[in-house]
Specification:
415 residues; 74% helix
């Protein structure tokens, strides 16, 4: 009888669990092991640009210049992204008001000693202008996902209008995209060891003494994130695609664990695209356009963090944060979320903008800095899960969804 191989998901989960215990037991003595995780992240980042550029170009080019279908796809994605982001912020505000995470905190005496530079909230025109690249090569070098998606979409659209010559180039792009996906498949064999290294480093360097003063804040934020991840996303999958939420989470587990350990929607993007096509039955057109766009525009975890953190900072400083200010918080958090960043640490940068916009002291960021890595793990899981649930929903709307693949009754060979 042939011995059954251990699944990659189980290997990654074992690596994560062992890493937590290793970091807890040895502390920062084993922090140097992080280099294994860093190598994994660099390899993933290496594949992102060719994957996104060729994938989005092929997805848009494959529409054959059908502007009506492209507009319909973009319209549905925008409604989904804005809608779920608003829901996330409202949940964050509600949970923050309910649990009062900013009351009763006694932080270390030097916690607020570091000055924080003031930043101003961008206008709507600035956010829109930032989305349009003026130098696509520079956008690729900086890994500005939104600008890369915009350029790739225009390039794919132009190729679709060139007739046979454009079709030949799109065919070549399809081969390059397949090669990029194959690279991801090879790199993912390293994932269990990278996850082990990253979790060992996080657990060993953060330390329990940093977590204790802000445990109430972390618990509040994690409860809000879990509600959105396992309730709202589940309703989207069940209500729109009419499939099992349990099966959705089970088939998405690889991408969720990678997001948890890397703290990045961008770093998880290649795995998310592969997961959407291979495990969830989402067609190439939707997955290669919606997920790169979602990695930048649909940051529900970050938006929810902005809400909970703002409420917590207002409570800590004893500032009355009434209904008007909370409505402003929703508006600015949505605005920042649409033009936010998908890289680790980006949430703290955009939080400074939100705090300044709603009139809260940005020095409060120093309160959260010590535990932000832990919070960021859960934020990234929501960001990726929400993108995947959106891809499933949009694919079902667009008749680009295969339930046989979703339920594991049919295998997909990614070409």
């Amino acid at each position: 009888m042939e011995k059954k191989k251990m699944s990659l998901t189980l290997k990654i989960f074992i690596g994560m669990t062992l890493g937590i215990f290793m970091g807890w037991f040895f502390g920062d003595k084993v922090s140097s092991i992080k280099v294994i995780g860093d190598i994994f992240l660099r390899l993933i980042q290496m594949a992102i640009i060719p994957l996104i550029f060729t994938g989005v170009s092929c997805a848009i080019g494959g529409l054959g210049g059908d502007m009506k279908k492209l507009g319909r796809l973009g319209y549905k994605l925008l409604i989904f992204y804005v809608g779920t982001t608003i829901i996330a912020i409202v949940i964050g505000v509600g949970i923050g008001n309910m649990f009062q995470p900013g009351t009763g905190i006694t932080p270390p005496t030097d916690l607020l000693s570091s000055p924080v530079s003031e930043v101003s909230a961008p206008s709507v025109s600035e956010v829109i202008l930032k989305m349009v690249p003026k130098n696509p090569v520079d956008a690729m070098a900086r890994q500005d996902m939104f600008q890369i998606v915009i350029f790739s979409a225009f390039f794919g659209l132009a190729l679709s209008m060139l007739g046979d010559a454009g079709t030949r180039i799109l065919s070549t792009f399809s081969v390059i995209n397949s090669a990029a996906i194959q690279m991801i498949t090879i790199i993912m064999k390293m994932a269990p060891y990278a996850v082990f290294a990253l979790m060992t480093w996080v657990t060993g360097t953060v330390g329990i003494e940093v977590l204790i003063p802000l445990a109430k804040y972390l618990v509040t934020l994690i409860i809000a994130l879990i509600l959105q991840t396992f309730f709202v996303c589940g309703i989207v999958v069940w209500g729109i695609a009419r499939v099992s939420p349990v099966q959705f989470y089970r088939r998405s587990l690889n991408a969720m664990i990678v997001a948890f350990t890397t703290c990045s929607s961008a770093a998880s993007l290649p795995i998310s695209i592969e997961t959407a096509q291979r495990n969830l039955g989402v067609g190439k057109t939707v997955s290669q356009f919606a997920l790169p766009l979602g990695a930048t525009m649909n940051s529900d975890g970050t938006a929810m963090f902005h809400a909970v953190a703002s409420i917590m900072i207002a409570q800590f400083f004893g500032i009355e944060f009434g209904l008007t200010q909370q409505i402003m918080l929703v508006f600015f958090a949505v605005l920042i979320g649409l033009g936010g960043t998908a890289v680790p640490g980006g949430g703290m940068v955009t939080l400074a903008i939100v705090l300044n916009a709603v009139g809260l002291p940005i020095e409060g960021i120093a309160l959260l800095a010590g535990v932000d890595r832990i919070a960021e793990m859960f934020r990234a899981v929501l960001n990726v899960t929400d993108d995947l649930s959106g891809a499933v929903a949009i694919a079902a709307w667009e008749k680009d969804f295969d339930k046989e693949v979703f339920y594991g009754r049919k295998e997909v060979v990614l070409d």
